[in-house]
Hints:
The protein is an alpha/beta fold.
Amino acid sequence: MERLELRLLGFPEFRLNGRPVELALRKAAALLIYLAEAGRPVAREVAATLLWPETDEEAARARLRRTLYKIRIAFGSEVIAATGGSLSLHRALSVEVDSRVFEQTCNVGPLDAAADIYKDDYLAGFSLPDCAEFEEWVFFRREALRSRLVQALERLIEAKIAGGEPRTAVVHATRLAGLDPLSESAHRHLIRAHLAAEDRAAAERQIEACVRLLREELGIAPDPATLALLREPSHDATLDVPRTRYVDVDGIHLAYQIVGSGQPDIVLVPGFISHVERIWEDRSCRAWISAVSRLGRLILFDRRGMGLSDRVGARPTVEATAQDILAVMNAAGSRRALLIGASEGGPGCIRFAVDHPDRLTGLVLWGSLAKGSRTPDYPFALTAAQYDLWKRRLIANWGGPAEIETFAPSLAGDRQAENWWAGLLRAASSPGAVAGLLEALRDTDVRHLLAKVSARTMVLHRSGDRAVRVEAGRFLAAKIPGARFIEVVGDDHWFWVDDQQKLLDSISTFARRS
């Protein structure tokens, strides 16, 4: 069997049976790359439109035929099979694509090997300026792989420090900081690694570099907790992040943390973006988590495909979220818990409440909804077209503080908060991955489940919420038997922004009655 190798982490390289193959025509290389990544037959017209978008159909198909001929000549054999109206890599080939090997190694380990595979960014230096759709596909793929690398490096740093290999942790942390020099989180990882290696001078230099970069590039000061890393640890001065643990759910590893102790157990299901470690880096969010953990034992987790949990290829569903909740509760030894579903996490909590009522002491829904898009009988959401426009705007601004004015209007213009949110987005997901998640939310509809919820339920919603209208919260409370609705003054969607006390008091009272 002939062996085809594609090296796509960096400028693309191709080998057949170990022999380098030059593809001078970039669209020939692009076609081979696209088919290899697709892993399935691709319609001829799709390939033709992708690579010759401005050409009429007949001319595009003619160019596609010439390109296939040039690929065959370059390799000296048939590497692409043309069957009927579709194209795919020949079945007789053994195919290895380094980007796929990287992802697989991220999933099964070892992470050191995964980091070694990632030599450079996906298709670095390769572009087709006249093919916008192909360029967009490459952008999404590149960002997804960079996100996996960041996740792998963060895990490696913590593992090496915990395993008594701080100098190796420094190497990985230096690489992490180089990927995103304006990420205060990356600087913190490197500072901690230097301190673990007992190199205080290097840690001090790194803090100075962090302060200078944030001031010169963003016009902001570092979080006091960053500066406090060099001082004697105190509960208030340091991040004091709990240990991140993992539970395996059918081969998918979910990241979770346990904060505090006592009763009741409180499980927080996040909205569409989460990262169990990065959330601690915002002062307001940190204060909120600490306050909730004083009400009971708080269990935080990243759903599959998000944050420090394994990335998955399938779109997330409410059933998958319910399965994740159950797995994390079992791993944490929680028999029954107060379940708090925030925003997009709410529908999954509703599914869990219907499937596992015996595992709940109560259900709290914050800024949540029953349906992702508008219909005549549910006018409280964006239309599908409006939603897709908003999704495209969010993705177009990925890497910056995308849509912070929607989620937290009171923080718009706050450079510290914007920098944290931008870093959280980059670390938690990628544009391509989050697009699938948002499409799943758009299509979500759990209205048929609401009447089946038997757990005591409280619905909390801010009156001016711009991300999820308050009417969506009222709808939930009206349809869930016996649910209590509490409307809180404010415009922010995030629960840790603006006045926290009303929310904390409501949850505390509700928890005591469990």
